[in-house]
Amino acid sequence: MNYFTQILKFAYPYKRYAFLNIFFNILYAIFSSLSFLSLIPLMNILFDETKQQKTPVAVDWSSLDSFKESVTEFFNYEITMLADEHGKMATLLAACGLILTLFLLKNISNYLALFFITFLRNGVLTNIRNALHHKILRLPLSYFSEQRKGETISKMTNDVQEIQWTFLMVLELIIREPLMIIVTVFIMITISAKLTLFMFLFLPVMGLFISFIGKKLKKHSDRVQQEQAHFLSNTEETLSGLKVLKSFTAEDKKHQQFEHTTGRLNQFLNSLMNRQNLASPTSEFLGIISVSGILWFGGLMVVEEQSLSAGAFIGFLTLAYNILTPAKQISKALASIKRGDAAAQRVLEVLHAEETVSDKSEARSKKEFDTDITFENIFFKYQDNFILEDFNLKVSKGKTVALVGQSGSGKSTIANLVNRFYDVNQGSIKIDGTDIRDIVKKDVRQLIGLVTQDSILFNDSVKNNLKLGMPHATDEEVIAAAKIANAHEFISKLDQGYNTNIGDGGGKLSGGQKQRLSIARAVLKNPPIMVLDEATSALDTESEKLVQKALENMMQNRTSIVIAHRLSTIQNADLIVVMQEGKIVEQGTHSELLAKKGTYKNLVAMQSLDEI
Predict the structure, then answer these.
(1) What is the pTM of this model?
(2) Which 3 state secondary structure label does DSSP give 301?
(3) Which residues contact residue 389 at a Cβ distance below 8 angstroms, ignoring those fewer than 6 apart?
(4) Torsion angle, CA of 466/468/469/475, rounded to 10 degrees?
(5) Are 59 and 74 in contact (CB under 8 A)?
(6) 3-class SS at 84?
(7) How far, CA to CA in Å, does 598 sit from each of 198, 534, 573, 603?
(8) Cα 425 to chain centroid, rounded
(9) What confidence score (pLDDT) does residue 52 get?
(10) pLDDT value at 418 more than 90
(11) Residue 386: phi, psi to the nearest 5?
(12) Measured between alpha carbons, how far is 26 from 28 in angstroms, rounded to an integer?
């Protein structure tokens, strides 16, 4: 339960519900035991074994034997008085009424205990999911490059759901069921300590079995949770790549992979459920063996020794059965805890994941951009090989710097680093002379507007997508930004205009329309620094020209880092940096680089041939 106990902190805000649950579980245990104990007077009345007691008796607490004898005499006195006054049948009816009342109180207590635990269980579920989502938003992008999205989704759904239900079982395990056993055993001892001791000879065997089953269940539960994560990953990949699968007629191959995954999941689930199902019947069979032994030993005490009345023996048997139910529940709960502990381990892997890109304790706030951005001796690698080596660059305020080069040269990595999605391995990136690692991360990103090569939009309205960085923007500001990005015209033609839902990932729009919305979103944010990562690559020629002109107008008063695929779009840049294998090989204006007749001119020539 090491991992599972760490989950209990999420229950703290709902501690009042836990206390109420404990309180009513205590009442449930008391009324449950008393309801079975009340059968003894009823049996004595039926078997006419009630000892006549004419003198009132007070309960004696001096010793267990005195307590037992005084309680018995007290009930005998009440039954005798009732029988003398109203007759035997009335006494029997009163005993039945007492039993019904106790069972009613028992079930009311049970309902109220479950009523309050519902708020606790669902509250814990909500808190864990909120904590997971908050953690996911804080984790660096490098974490998700090593994890499948389906595994993360599985942890937020299947594993958290598993924790929710096992959490309920734990409360029953540590409060209700043990309390039930304790109260019942105490009453059984008052009836016959000798018979109770005999019954306890069977408990170690049941405990060993439950422990053995629990260890097996945790092992198989780990495998099930992992396979469920693979299942969700496979499903997510299918949905994301459906267009490609159909285009390459790879549906059958993908379905075979899916069937392989579900087949393994089915195998592991069968194995887990069969072992889980084994726990209850086996513990029940061991319980019946215990009851059979009690029947034999108790029968000797009733028939031969005559040290126990028939009514007391029947009452003892019902109480013994009352122990079997919580024992079975404990068996199930222990099995569930093993599964829940495995799920908790997977959830905590996310919650305890290292936030490699985080704010220093002494990080300072910065709201303005004044002079320049500098890249000083940058070395960076995603895994083993360096993507950037000894990279140095200065971007002055108000200037436009374009990064060009072949794919894999490290251009987009610059955009990732300046936004502090990753931290450099060596060197530093400075804004106005201050290392961005010494500035509050949120402030760094507030200074920058990013338009990515892939148009990342959300399943929401056009307006809400545009207002992502400026949630309080007015409708007029939204429309103005859309006009700059050449998006207002097509937005106005949508069914509900700016309130139109664009679907999952903007699936209801064309590639060019999605890209123009991404540009409008950055324009609306109105940051002093713009980072355009091949921002116009998805546009058609006409839209590209219109948007490019708008971007040029917008960048006149901003510092811009433009990562360009189409070299024709950056000819007016103040500085063009040519990159190759993570290093700067040339830099200068468009005319200067052409005059050098080097790498840049070759890139321009190749692109000109491609466009012919």
Answers:
(1) 0.72
(2) helix
(3) 379, 582, 583
(4) 50
(5) yes
(6) helix
(7) 96, 23, 18, 9
(8) 32
(9) 53
(10) yes
(11) -70, 130
(12) 5
pLDDT digits (tens, 9 = 90+) for 204-237: 666 566 556 655 655 666 677 677 777 777 777 7
Positions of CATH 3.40.50.300 in the chain: 372-611
Query: Which residue is listed with tokens 């919580």?
Result: 326
* Sign of the four-CA dihedral 250, 253, 259, 264: negative
Cβ 427 vs Cβ 375: under 8 Å: yes
CA atoms of 410 and 386, how far apart (whole Å): 10
Tell me the two tokens of residue 42.
Answer: 């009823």
DSSP one-letter code for 302: I
Is 2-351 a domain of CATH 1.10.10.60? no
CA distance 517 to 234: 30
Kindly report, as residue ranges, where domains of CATH 1.20.1560.10 are found in the chain: 2-351
Q: Tell me the three state secondary structure of residue 519.
A: helix
Residue 14 per-residue DSSP state: G
**Helices 310-351 and 203-240, axial angle in degrees (round to 10):** 40
Structure tokens that stand for 376 in this block: 């000083």
Strand 529-533 versus strand 559-563 pairing type: parallel
Neighbouring CB atoms inside 10 A of 578's CB total 24
Q: Give strand pairing partners of 426.
A: 379
**In which residue are the tokens 């984790």 written?**
139
Cα–Cα distance for residue pair 183/198, rounded to 1 Å? 18
Please choose, from the candidates 101, 85, 99, the residue with its C-alpha nearest in 3D space to the C-alpha of residue 46: 99
Assign domain 372-611 to its CATH architecture: 3-Layer(aba) Sandwich (3.40)
Residue 42 has pLDDT above 70, yes or no: no
One-character DSSP codes across 184-227: HHHHHHHH-HHHHHHHTTSHHHHHHHHHHHHHHHHHHHHHHHHH
pLDDT band at 566 (very low <50, low <70, confident <90, very high): confident
pLDDT, tens digit, 9 for 90 and up, residues 135-184: 888 888 888 777 777 778 888 888 888 888 777 677 667 777 788 788 88
Under 8 Å between Cβ of 439 and 366: yes
Expressed in angstroms, the distance from the first to the final Cα of the chain is: 68
